[in-house]
Amino acid sequence: MIQGIHRRARGHVLRLLFYLLAVAAAAHSQAVESPEDYPYGKIVRDIRIRGLHNTKESLVRSQLISRIGCVYTKETEKQDRRWLERLKAFSSVRTDAMAVDDGVILIIEILELPVFVPFPTLNVSSENDASGGFGARLKNILQEAGVLSGSAKFGGLTEADLSLEAPWTRQTRGRYSIKYNYRDRINRDDSFRENSHELDLKIGISLHADWMLSGRFGFLSMGSNIPGVTLSPGGRDNTPALGAVLEYDGRDSLFNPRDGWQGILDITQNGGFLGGEGDFVTTRIDVRRYQPVASRHGLVFFSYAAFQSGAVGEDVPEYRDYQIGGTNSVRGWDPNARRGENQFLNTLEYRFELLPPRTLRISKYSFPIGLQLAGFADLGTAWSQGSGFTRNMIAGGGFGLRVIAPFVNVVRLDLGFGQTGALLRPHIHLREKAQYSRDRIR
Questions:
Q1: What is the pTM of this model?
Q2: Does the N terminus or the C terminus of the chain have fewer Cβ atoms within 10 A?
């Protein structure tokens, strides 16, 4: 019976994949190459920056690959935009090159985000229903590009977070982030009331324009209201963590990528010789590909694997295993449909820009908006023993909308299918699915 369910689920997904690829191929066949409008290959004679109100011009100039006296190319234009987007201070960056007799004048048009922004917060998950609250963001802290942000949510869960982050910039060749999270909720998957504090500190150095190597220190304090959930008989586990993170980011855009690769390799020791409860190594491999097909059509592929050493309930706390199914893993399935010590998740998504991203101006500030149609297929498994890898494989698919919105990046509204006997399931969440899969938010 179970094998029959798997065959039917896989059949649905395969049909959806063939449909997505057929649509993509048709769109690609209709694509028309746009003419080269920019005077590439000429010498840059001047660089003019427009639209700055709260950001120092020296900071913007320090991020540019282009230099006066150097040749202006398509690659330098692309890199200029990417480095400026990494500051996370602008809603849009537009470059133009005006031809003159002996070269070009490079014009950088920037639309800034406000220095201080209060905003509503929303969390809709399969675990804890809906929660809402408020947050605020303040940029230019401690250094020119530092960002301080915090938020609080109430409802299905009580959660508060605070972070201080310096983005990946060219002049410092480094980056740091400090994040704290507090959470109080009913953990439905493990049937206990969770009260947790989590601290994460990351310090990195740029190895290359697209490569970053970071050291990471973390600390998780997890409390339970019932015995037997935590490894500690006292009902609270305190687990330090130490690890290394290697990141690659070759995407064409930070906020709305359409082309390029992104990859993250994260290896972390939890507990053990560091002290505290537990003793296990977590290895996470995160690969993302954005593939343009035509001017308004694109494909996205996410693949994420997480492996843990040790045994659940002995070295690994039960609340640190993986449960798949639901909004941020395999859509169309119940949360906790499969669970295990390790997990492997894959997503193929076709996107059509119904309303291409554009800028909404309010006073001197601006915000990105847009709307996309999406069709998707998910495939995943969670397992502890080798035979469970294939036995626990589940698949789902569906369609939905992507609303590009200020501060939250994107709002996902999906209808998924896959679980036998179930109707189309609604899924609502924020930001890219791959990020929440990585953060264990289901």
A1: 0.82
A2: N
